[in-house]
Amino acid sequence: MNFHIVTLPGDGIGPDVTNEAVRVLKHIAEKFGHQFRFEQQLIGGIAIDETGSALPDETLRACLNADAVLLGAVGGPKWDDPRAKTRPEDGLLAIRKGMGLFANLRPVKPHPALAFASPLREEKIRGVDFIVVRELTGGLYFGKPKERRQENGHVSAVDTMEYHDYEIRRIVDLGFKLTQTRQKKLASVDKANVLASSRLWREIATEMHADYPDVKLDHVLVDTAAMRLVTAPASFDVIVTENTFGDILTDEAAVLVGSMGLLPSASLGAGTRGLYEPIHGSAPDIAGKGIANPLGSILSAAMLLRHSLKLENEANAIERAVDEMLSEGCRSADIAREGEQVLNTSEMADEVIGRIR
Ligand code: NAD
Predict the structure, then answer these.
(1) Are both 179 and 269 inside the same structural domain?
(2) Can you give the CATH number for the domain in which 187 is found?
(3) Strand (E) or helix (H) holding 123
(4) Ligand 1 center–CA 1 separation, angstroms
(5) pTM of the model
(6) Distance (Å, rounded) from C-alpha 169 to C-alpha 221?
(7) Which residue of 142, 157, 229, 261 lies most exposed, with the fewest beta carbons within 10 A?
(8) What is the pLDDT of residues 73-84, one digit of tens each?
(9) pLDDT by residue (tens digit) across 44-58?
């Protein structure tokens, strides 16, 4: 099969880890008889430096013509001036909007050999394997009014949590469909005891459940969900939630795994085209040292194969290889214990490539 993949390495360790994920994808193409055409474009700080925009038109055009997009990370101290007209992170919001991406998927599956790296006790981590599906385009981040006001000598500020029925329906539907390929347990997270938008969310999720009778649907209040993530994380299969709750819960979920460097993510819209990126940032503290863990990016490439290119066997081959190399003790600096041999970024990818069958 022929596919066109746009890469957006970005800033800091973004290029280091993206290069390794591309090497893994090239190996997959060769091994499984596919043709992948890679096209590199600018985003983030480097795009600001070269074009003045965090998301140049040419980048967005290329992404809209591609089958899938693989992103590294954006940002860094060089572009942190609060007075700057544009910031690297503007590129992220713009590309999500430009590509019509409304769902962010973050799988959380700690590797048993790395249970020591989790802040939770080993027995709590055992069996943890869930995905958080976060709504990306609605809620507090975008609702209007969103402004500061001056009244009677006081300043106030307002944000608006607004959701339309169609926004709720499309994300909850994705949650139901995803869990049908897994354990068939959907936790719809809201704050229906307080928020009107959450009451609409819960009403629609309940109504849609009729179309998915094989799925067990639980409504979980966001405060309860936050507690359950640390007291019983293995009880979750798929969590679906709105933008702000998702932002907070996905970071809480990420620390269960032990290192930011290990986790992939996918952002999806209505079609199959998606944007795939590790959850970590540009890690300026280790940029240019060649020691970043590339597994978050490599596992993002596996998600790209699964969700956008529909190459399930190839995705599984990467995930199995990562599983094996971790079981056999391959470690980058962020996941090594004292005295363990430490591999650099390329060596980690070599260990994955060598195990792809
Ligand atoms: P970060 O994720 O870049 O780093 C946090 C810590 O985790 C650092 O100590 C870093 O060295 C470590 N780390 C991250 N990825 C790693 C990897 N692959 N291997 C080994 N160690 C890794 O978060 P931060 O320091 O808060 O942010 C740095 C910059 O990244 C900021 O400019 C921020 O705005 C940006 N950022 C970008 C994204 C994105 O592009 N999606 C996400 C988060 C932060």
Answers:
(1) no
(2) 3.40.718.10
(3) helix 122-125
(4) 34
(5) 0.94
(6) 19
(7) 157
(8) 999 999 999 889
(9) 999 999 999 999 999
